[in-house]
User: Fold these one by one.
Assistant:
Number 1:
Amino acid sequence: MAKKGEFTVTPWEVSGNVDYDLLIKDFGSQRIDEPLRQRIKKLAGGELHYMLRRDLFFSHRDLPWVLDEYEKGNKFSLYTGRGPSEHTHIGHLVPWFFTKWLQDKFNVPLLFQFTDDEKYLFKDKLTRKDTLEFSKENMLDVLAVGFDPKKTRMIVDTKEIATLYPHALDVAKKVTFSTAKAVFGFTNDTNIGSIFFTSIQSVPAFLPTIEKGKPVPVLIPCAIDQDPHFRVTRDVAPRLGYPKPAMLHCRFVPALLGPQSKMSASDPVNTIFTTDAPEEAAKKVMRAFTGGRATVAEQREKGGNPDICSVCQYLNFLFEPDDKKLKERFEDYRNGKILDGENKAYLAEKVKAFLKEHQRKREQARPLVEKLFEEK
Ligand code: TYM
């Protein structure tokens, strides 16, 4: 649990101005450095995803081991997921697009977990029906991202609990209440389902090994808020005879209110959801917090600050994959050549085009999702 006064990062709360260097120290993960980036690039066929080039994926656990095994011919499995408590927002797409890139470049399978049980337990207002319904809705987004259906297995916890439960018990038996309290900050008021939950999120990290009957490296790409779960998973792994899952951590896309804000359903005005009407999302962009100055004259003279500007950061994280174009835009913004209105309009067009296409792919996926839910 990272709670440093200035900021908080837990799987259920991200707030304040996150100091990522401090977080690496506090969580005990490793920085992704240049030699490691170059190694990934070589193994990925000579190309590096912009999220690695820009240090958006910035931290890892045991990645060199996964790459060593890969070089020996022991391919890894990918594992990531979604807690279905609301519609997908564009921040969620960051680890998913990156996971898709890994799946394509390394030609590896993916396990995608929907933790409807987690969201039911942790969100007072949500019913089990709600979280199951959001699993369906969120699954449309996952499929719209374009994962290879032949290499992707999706698990909705309450639907496939029979697969997960025996192994969750093995995990739960090795985790004490005092560990759960220390890692997650649980108190006497926490419901007992929440205390158990991390065992369920651990299981997909072990399933490839369990099902293949031999050690399979697992790599988990996610934002760094999920790391506490997997610290527990990694801690119990050797005691259950499984390899520790490796991790790749990304930074958080802020809400439109600026670097200290968090996207969520409770702040829909400042959060772009994949289900927003494109025009509505464009309006949200036009109202965003920026790194600009009080007046046009001042901004022309002194320039803006792209580091704290939501608009610039949305381009950085998702909407301007071309490094050269991004660099030029940031420079022009810093020099006062580009003003906020123009920058916002530029992003708004990109967001609109993205949402149109993404929503088309979501609808295309709907019959498959309906079928999957009927079968499960
Ligand atoms: P959830 O639904 O909170 O988040 C889904 C994924 O999105 C990441 N994320 C973000 N990434 C960038 N910017 C943001 N603002 C942002 N907000 C969230 C999360 O880190 C996550 O990768 N318990 C999990 C579900 C889960 C899971 C997993 C996630 C089950 N197994 C394995 C990752 C890996 C959850 O509630 O995620």
Note: The first strand starts at residue 2 and ends at 3.
Number 2:
Amino acid sequence: MKINVIFAPLDVEELFFTKKTTVVIDVLRATTTIATAIQNGVREVIPVNTVAFAMKVSGDAFGGQTILGGERNTKMIEGFNLGNSPLEYTPEVVSGKSVILFTTNGSKAIVQAKYSENLVTCCFNNLSVIAQHLIKLDEDILILCAGRNSMFSMEDCVCAGALIEKITESKEEVSLSDGATASSLLYKSLGKNILKMLKETEHGKLLIENGFEKDLEYCAQIDSVNVVPSFSDNVLKNMEKKESE
Ligand code: MLT
């Protein structure tokens, strides 16, 4: 198994992902929100890459059971039902509903990787279950960090390193690209206190400034949810649910 890491989606062609097993990471906050929504019983999450498209596919398209969620510059978008705080995606709010999700970086990265053969999303909250899933799959892995405005994000890279650590703990013969080795080293250096690391990132500081400090505490939890958000037919659902359908 070979693991590679892309630090931001900048200039990566959609077709590059064809036949790949891709893991998208956007710790703050899209992939944490997706894991939470799925854990809390959402029917599906539909990631989109423009607000216009989000508006277009909402309305009565899913029998009125649709929620528009997401953010621009960390804040809720006018006309949307929810922002991008994972704490908003409670069972009472999302259970049985379809969530259309637009976010500045995370949902776009997922759409960009849509041609992947296998596409899952990861965050600290579902780290071990994703690692186990990938070990079972036993394919080469491409980790796509959503980054921030096409730039490197520390928190996504540290989470990539944590995932690599989990995989290499229980699997032999894993080869790492330079990007994967760098992620692993960064995790070893900053991963001892995830919350502290999140608070010191550019995005973490912006979230605190905008009143979302509690989100950082939530996003720092390791293995608090047990779902494998898996993308096919343009929607994300829990892998187990898909297999039993
Ligand atoms: C993104 O996709 O850029 C994020 O999830 C932003 C955020 O909600 O803070």
Note: The chain has a mean pLDDT of 94.
Number 3:
Amino acid sequence: MILLFGPPGAGKSMQGQMLAARQGWKWLSTGEMLRRSNDPAVIDILRSGELVSDALIYQVFEQAVQDARDKKYPNIIVDGFPRTKEQAAWLDEYMARMSEKIDTVISLEVPEAEIMRRLEKRGRLEDTPEAIARRMTIYRQKMYPVLGIFAEAGVRIVHLDGVGTAGEVHDRIYEEVAYACQL
Ligand code: AMP
């Protein structure tokens, strides 16, 4: 598995989809799966910028990985999970249980001013000014520490510049993924 990490608006989804299309791999975005949910309570949480419950996320993630494995995808690009230390600990246990491994974590770095410009343009349901502010706070408080957990576990983390055209950022990511997965 490849894990894409970074703040909202860093380009994880676009880059995840580009890499998946190029390699015939599965792009697995917990946020995208939740956005397609028909549950109004879930949509309300997304609109607020808060995180959904761990229990729901584990269920969504496990089911999606199972589905990708059943469909024989050679690899999975995970976008948006884990987002907290608790989720990272759960993932570690899950990886051991399922004999999965993290090939590399790609952390996309984008300056906050650029992120704000991108999110204002994007206009997803969770891109209101209040929800953007909340998600940035959650990123700093909850998501960023996840990198520390990965580092302690000896997982390879690559920090890449997420500024530039989609193609330029893709080339940077591809080079690292090709190395990590021996493509
Ligand atoms: P994303 O598309 O990854 O930015 O996710 C959009 C929204 O989905 C987030 O703001 C959260 O409300 C929810 N979400 C996605 N992934 C997770 C996760 N791992 N844990 C909790 N909530 C999540």
Note: The chain is about 60% helix and 15% strand.
